[in-house]
């Protein structure tokens, strides 16, 4: 399909002009060097995240390069021929990107089947399908606002989010350029001027959106396409605005070296706390644009100072295979711990790096180059699309089949677990039961969790939904009435973040047994404390989240004071949430004093306060997949108690207050012995995901809650 502006332009003329335009763009060693740098930054960040925390900026380098190259080709064809052969363009993109991408997805899906536990298959297939159809970025954006989904382990296809953004850009960009060209003809304006104005407008709007959205929802902003278009736009503007030979050789060298410094500097300085993309992404994006601009300005053969380094054969080779290196490295990282039965060591990481490069070269030669042969021998457009759709269908059907197989395995494992559950040493009871000598060493039948273990699941006999971590600014709770109409029924509240929500199965069961009216209110990653919320896990909170958290926290406290329940249960992730009361003291002291202020107010109203101390850390002290690897002997996943059980501000507040109306509930002895904290107890997994408890464990702890509540009374 050819879309033209001049009806008199022939296809033959378009072909010849497009070929001349393509030849004039030429081979750019500096662009290959940028590709090599970009993939090196990304892979290093994924293998050694603590060594190069900002290596994710390599993706931004790729985006700017893509915007430059695609716009260079399209605008030259458009200006010189009056049209763009859309069918040929899309066929070239398909030949260039999809064969390798689908090959790696097919191999990755096979690896999931061979090496990953079946409970990881469904999530893996979901993201493989998102990658097959190039919507993976939107899948991850949706998960980033679903708190329970945020804690799922990474899948083999997670890195395809950036490829999805690129494909969405390629799908829309030529259409936008054609519309701008049509507008210029209708208004009798210069085509290039209209293209520049249109691209500049799109780039500016996208950048403004990115800056705003990053400030209010940075997790989503990282993945959504509208917040990334401006980076492609930067590359496009270099292609449109560049005036060849307008700079001196010294000026070109200053531009290129400054650009490389901006890219490398941002990778070294940025970390996971940096609000990104937003304005901070300007640094690597502008740096990439400067390097490309410097290379575009020179006459043929007019070298730059960095050419002796960037032109080295190893760097050019890495740039040449950068796309396939990017595709291969991540599934190897995800699969390797299961393939070798251990967490990634430094030698293993070096092996992954070498294997990724080797597989990339094979893929380049056997797959990429085969589909990028000279026009006469490469598959025609119709065959390209047909073959690609067939491959997408095969991968999709394989994924659906894998989900069905996972369901069968789940049924078998549940039957085995049910047999184990009948014994006296099942679950936390093994710690207190005489004759259960090794409660933390029992083999685990279900090392990974399924939907039946979800801590956030709504109770069947409760009429309202208990799933969501909402931010109702009124503080209005969700209510579950177990009173059976009793006039003297107690009202109790359960409040906090998801670490309060993980205890709800126990509180609901206590409500059933004691005929309570249970009210609950949660806000994910938000502490209920008399202090300003400023961050989570070391990352600063965006303004929207921080304000919503504070509104919810204070509104919920006010609602509790108005309601005057008999008791409240409260819990939160005090080790991961950051507050600031303006004193500059340590987090533990600030947290402790903020909790003391709140609890003193509640106690004065006659409300019993029961903080439920936070359980030991999971992902922070062990691989989240450790139990799947060592299900036969789970004690290998044990972590030192000093690391797994950091100081809890709730416990510090209880100890400092010394009020009879404030009593802490501590379940840590069912997770830790004197020296180590464990991943399993009595043959069942303690954790549901990276952070939260398995609901089965919580339900089995109900007698322990009852005992501690009796002692407190």
Question: How would you characterize the overall build of this protein?
Answer:
With 713 residues, the protein is of the alpha/beta class. The protein folds into three domains: 3-401, no CATH class; 423-453 and 615-636 and 675-713, no CATH class; 463-613 and 648-666, SGNH hydrolase (Rossmann fold, 3-Layer(aba) Sandwich). It has 27 helices and 14 strands. The strands form five sheets. A five-stranded mixed sheet has the order 3-5-4-8-10, sandwiched between helices. It has a three-stranded antiparallel sheet with strand order 7-6-9. Strands 1-2 form a two-stranded antiparallel ribbon. α3 (57-81) packs across α12 (282-297), α4 (86-115) packs parallel to α15 and α6 (136-144) crosses α8 (161-187). The radius of gyration is 29 Å and the shape is globular. The chain starts with a strand and ends with a helix.
Number of strands: 14
Biggest β-sheet description: 5 strands, mixed
- Per DSSP, the total helix count is 27
Distance between the termini: 79 Å
What features would you highlight for this structure?
single chain, 713 residues, alpha/beta, Rossmann fold, five-stranded mixed sheet, disordered N terminus
């Amino acid at each position: 399909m050819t879309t033209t502006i001049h009806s008199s332009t022939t296809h033959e003329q378009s072909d010849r002009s497009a070929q001349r335009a393509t030849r004039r763009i030429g081979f750019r060693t500096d662009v290959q060097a940028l590709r090599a740098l970009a993939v090196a930054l990304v892979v290093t960040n994924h293998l050694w995240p603590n060594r190069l925390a900002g290596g994710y900026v390599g993706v931004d380098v790729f985006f700017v390069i893509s915007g430059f190259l695609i716009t260079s080709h399209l605008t030259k064809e458009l200006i010189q021929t009056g049209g763009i052969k859309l069918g040929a363009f899309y066929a070239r993109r398909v030949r260039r990107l999809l064969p390798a991408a689908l090959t790696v997805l097919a191999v990755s899906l096979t690896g999931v089947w061979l090496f990953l536990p079946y409970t990881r298959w469904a999530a893996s297939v979901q993201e493989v399908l998102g990658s097959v159809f190039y919507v993976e970025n939107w899948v991850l954006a949706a998960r980033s606002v679903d708190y329970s989904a945020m804690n799922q382990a990474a899948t083999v296809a997670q890195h395809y989010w950036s490829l999805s953004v690129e494909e969405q850009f390629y799908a829309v960009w030529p259409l936008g350029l054609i519309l701008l060209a049509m507008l210029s003809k209708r208004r009798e304006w210069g085509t290039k001027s209209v293209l520049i104005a249109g691209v500049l407008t799109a780039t500016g709007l996208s950048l403004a959106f990115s800056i705003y959205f990053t400030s209010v929802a940075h997790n989503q902003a990282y993945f959504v396409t509208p917040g990334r278009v401006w980076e492609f736009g930067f590359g496009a503007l270099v292609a449109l605005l560049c005036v060849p030979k307008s700079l001196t050789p010294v000026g070109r060298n200053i531009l290129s070296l400054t650009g490389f410094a901006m890219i490398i500097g941002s990778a070294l300085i940025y970390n996971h706390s940096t609000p990104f993309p937003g304005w901070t992404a300007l640094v690597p994006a502008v740096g990439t644009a400067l390097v490309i601009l410097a290379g575009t300005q020179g006459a043929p053969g007019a070298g730059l100072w960095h050419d002796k380094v960037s032109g080295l054969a190893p760097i050019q080779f890495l740039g040449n295979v950068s796309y396939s290196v990017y595709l291969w490295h991540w599934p190897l990282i995800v699969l390797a711990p299961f393939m070798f039965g251990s967490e990634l060591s430094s030698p293993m990481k070096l092996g992954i790096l070498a294997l990724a490069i080797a597989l990339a070269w094979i893929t380049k030669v056997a797959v990429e180059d085969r589909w990028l042969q000279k026009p006469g021998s490469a598959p025609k457009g119709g065959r390209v699309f047909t073959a690609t759709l067939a491959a997408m269908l095969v991968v999709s059907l394989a994924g659906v089949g894998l989900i069905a197989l996972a369901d069968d395995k789940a049924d078998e494992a549940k039957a085995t677990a049910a047999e184990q559950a009948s014994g006296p040493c099942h679950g936390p009871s093994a710690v207190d039961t005489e004759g259960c000598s090794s409660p933390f060493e029992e083999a685990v039948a279900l090392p990974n969790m399924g939907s039946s273990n979800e801590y956030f699941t709504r109770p069947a006999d409760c009429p309202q939904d208990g799933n969501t971590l909402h931010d109702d600014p009124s503080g209005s709770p969700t209510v579950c009435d177990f009173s059976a109409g009793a006039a003297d029924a107690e009202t109790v509240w359960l409040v906090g973040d998801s670490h309060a929500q993980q205890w709800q199965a126990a509180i609901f069961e206590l409500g059933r047994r004691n005929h309570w009216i249970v009210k609950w209110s949660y806000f994910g990653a938000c502490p209920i404390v008399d202090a300003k919320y400023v961050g989570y896990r070391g990352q600063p909170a965006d303004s929207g989240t921080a304000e919503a958290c504070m509104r919810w926290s204070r509104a919920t406290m006010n609602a509790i004071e108005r309601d005057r329940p008999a008791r409240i249960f409260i819990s939160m992730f005090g080790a991961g949430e950051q507050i600031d009361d303006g004193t500059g003291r340590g987090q533990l002291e600030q947290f402790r004093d903020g909790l003391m202020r709140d609890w003193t107010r509640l106690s004065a109203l006659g409300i019993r306060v029961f903080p439920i101390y936070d359980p030991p850390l999971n992902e922070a002290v062990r691989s989240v997949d450790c139990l799947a690897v060592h299900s036969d002997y789970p004690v290998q996943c044990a972590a030192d108690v000093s690391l797994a059980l950091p100081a809890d501000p709730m416990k510090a507040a209880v100890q400092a207050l010394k009020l009879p109306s404030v009593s802490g509930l501590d379940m840590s002895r069912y997770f830790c012995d004197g020296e180590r904290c464990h991943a399993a107890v009595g043959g069942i997994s303690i954790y549901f995901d990276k952070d939260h408890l398995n609901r089965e464990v919580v339900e089995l702890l109900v007698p322990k809650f009852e005992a501690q509540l009796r002692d407190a009374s």
